[in-house]
Amino acid sequence: MTMRTRLLRRRNIIRTLKKWIPKLRFILFAVGVTWLFVLPSKQYSKRTYISENALLPGQVKTYYSWSEVNEASVYAESIESLVNASSLEKAAAIERELRKSGFKTATQNFTVNILGKPITGVNVFAILNAPRGDGTEALVLSAPWKSKDGITDNINGVAAALSIGNSLKKYTYWSKDIILLISDGAEIGVQAWLEAYHDYQRSDMIGSPLLLRSGAIQAAVNLDFPGTHSYRALGLFFEGLNGQLPNLDLLNIVVRICRVSAYIPVMLHETGHIYQYNDDYGDYKSSLHNLITTMKFQALGHPTGNHGLFLRYKIDAITLYGKVDEEVNQQKFRFYEIGSVVESTFRSLNNLLEHFHQSFFFYLLPSPERYISIDHALALWASTGDDPNIQSAPSSSVTVTATPGSSKDAKHTVDDLAVALPYNRRPRRIAFPLAVLIGTHAAGLVILFVVKNHFDISRLAELFGIPGYLSTLSLTSSISIVTTSVLVTTLESRSLANSRSQPLRPANLTPSPDWAVLKCFSLAYTGMIISCLSVLNYSLAVFVALAVVIPFSLFRPTEQQLLRALQLFVLLVISPPGLLLLSGVDIRAFLEWQLSEYLVLGNYLLPFVCCTYWPTILAYGIIVFAPVR
Predict the structure, then answer these.
(1) Do 346 and 489 fall into the same domain?
(2) 446 within domain boundaries
(3) pTM of this structure
(4) Which residues contact 79 (CB under 8 A, 6 or more apart)?
(5) Residue 190: φ, ψ to 5°
(6) 19 in a domain, yes or no?
(7) 3-state SS of the chain: helix, strand, coil percent to 5?
């Protein structure tokens, strides 16, 4: 009786699972999407706190005074007169001012070839040796010539950096060297300086060696205050290259100082809600906006400021941005508040006994003073490849043997208790599906090669009157179509040959169709990619999952032309060319931007799309066109 009860229970459980598992994937997907909209609520975020007790933000008296403010105003006038000067003239003027103040200064010339166009620039930097240090650790205060939009001149940012440097030099409590860096050429200039500082050499970027050096850089603060305006709020940009983030303590220092010392309104990035002194959350709408903006920047992998290049060298960095507001009645701030915040921040960083390590490196910020830890953000993304239309294998009888000493010492065949398995135990041929995945990824490598040579292809196409970006897009799409067509034709020939050569067999002995094995591999591969990506670039993993989880789990071959056309349409929409067309961006500018990001800065979005995402799309295209046999 015990065995009979156990078999009955097992059969009921399996029947229930077989009924609900196909629906579970939709439930899990809905839970994951809903979770994203729950995260910005106040109940699922925590108030930020300082993990490193030695930092003591806002606990010191700052000495940046109105005499330094007047000095900064003079610097701003001088810098404004250099707006149309060459890089060499700008560098010479800055170096001259730094030497007047008693700094050790040096310049770095660099040249980088981007898409066949040589870009040159000159970086200027100076080092303030710590009176109480041995030169083994340093902090960086940087300011680019251009603001983050690449158009507006960063006049107040450079002037503030020079003025703050002069102010910091007057005091002897520094235990870490301070490096002043005025960079040229936006992120490229910082990249050239960092590579030279760490003795990294590459063939496509030529930079002169640095004549001055200090120790290991612990942290960096980048100033971006465009124009000569006063500012409404202090914007915080913290996303780095490939979605890297600085230690949360660095942001907490700046926000705490703005709250308790400088009384400056703060905001995340440059759009959205401005957080006043007693406002730590705002509302749900502003939190959702901040979350989506942060995830967008992270997914693209582009650094949101010059600070983003420091993060790849394990240097925590942040950009302070001046939000310009033309409203007359709003409270404004300028050099005095900027200098006080930067000085107090550097005083806190000067207290570091070791590298930032205690606070979070993986987080999302719905507001400057609230954070979402990664344990809340990593919701379950799962789907099943189980097909409810697959019939079960014929049931086998279960033979039960009574134990010695029981009332019935004989064998009992209980056919009525046979357990129907929710799947078929069938042979699976994996060689061809694996070859298909290898073939699609080989096509992805060819696509990446074509995109990398976009400039040469464009020049050749323009000789025939064809826009360069259109030729690259057409060529990559043609590679995708040819690869899919060849593999689908091979799959059809293979399926036809198998059906002719094999006699009729029971369902449990017939090999699984190639498309089913290919779909199993593709689903497992997609899940593996999303899982690995979630701990490298969580935001990119979320957007990939939103795009592909439901379509990939539903796609299958069909003889209904309308359903097949619908599946093909969805594949075209979520493919890279389809997403580009739907986004409405300038395709030529986007291709050149992504290519320069990949070749110069090392942004991995382009190789990820070409070598991982696009080949997976091709594999599912083959599944859609597979023969139904």
Answers:
(1) no
(2) yes
(3) 0.84
(4) 153, 155, 158, 159
(5) -65, -40
(6) no
(7) 50, 15, 35
Same domain, 288 and 434: no
Q: Which of 377, 398, 431 is the last residue of a domain?
A: 377
Cα→Cα distances 167→205, 230, 257, 320, 486, Å: 35, 21, 18, 19, 69
Indicate the SS3 state at residue 268.
Answer: strand
Residue with tokens 């497992």: 524
Single-letter code of the amino acid located at 571: L
Higher pLDDT, 280 or 405: 280
Helix (H) / strand (E) element for 541: namely helix 538-554
Looking at the DSSP bridge assignments, the partners of residue 144 are 183
86's torsion region: left (phi>0), alpha (psi -120 to 50) or beta? beta
User: Sign of dihedral through CA atoms 189, 192, 196, 197?
Assistant: positive
pLDDT at 186: 83
Instruction: Give the start-end residues of each E strand in 82-159.
Output: 104-114, 117-128, 137-144
Are 348 and 428 in the same domain?
Answer: no
- Please tell me the distance from the alpha carbon of residue 73 to that of residue 82, in angstroms, as a whole number: 15
Domain that holds residue 449: 422-624
Is 345 inside a domain boundary?
Answer: yes
80/135 same-domain check: yes
DSSP tag of 111: E
Q: How far apart are CA 467 and CA 445, in angstroms?
A: 23
In angstroms, how far is the first alpha carbon of the chain from the final one?
A: 44
Do the Cβ atoms of 299 and 604 come closer than 8 Å?
A: no
pLDDT for residue 255 = 94
Phi and psi torsions of 182, nearest 5°: -110, 105
Beta strands at 117-128 and 104-114: parallel, antiparallel or unpaired: antiparallel
* 412 or 424, greater pLDDT: 424
* pLDDT score recorded for residue 253: 95
Kindly report which listed range (36-50, 60-74, 256-270, 464-478) carries the lowest average pLDDT score. 464-478
Report the Cα 394 to chain-centroid distance in Å: 49
Residue 38 in any domain: the answer is no
Note the pLDDT of residue 377: 65
Sign of CA dihedral 335, 96, 191, 213: negative
Angle between helices 335-350 and 248-257 (to 10 degrees): 140
**Do 126 and 201 sit in the same domain of this protein?**
yes
Domain check: are 280 and 366 in the same one? yes
Q: Identify any residues that bridge with 398 across adjacent strands, giving them in sequence order.
A: 414
Angle CA(166)–CA(169)–CA(172) in degrees, nearest 5?
160
What SS3 state is found at 573?
helix
Same domain, residue pair 616 and 497? yes
Whether 341 and 447 share a structural domain: no
Q: Structural domain tally of the chain?
A: 2
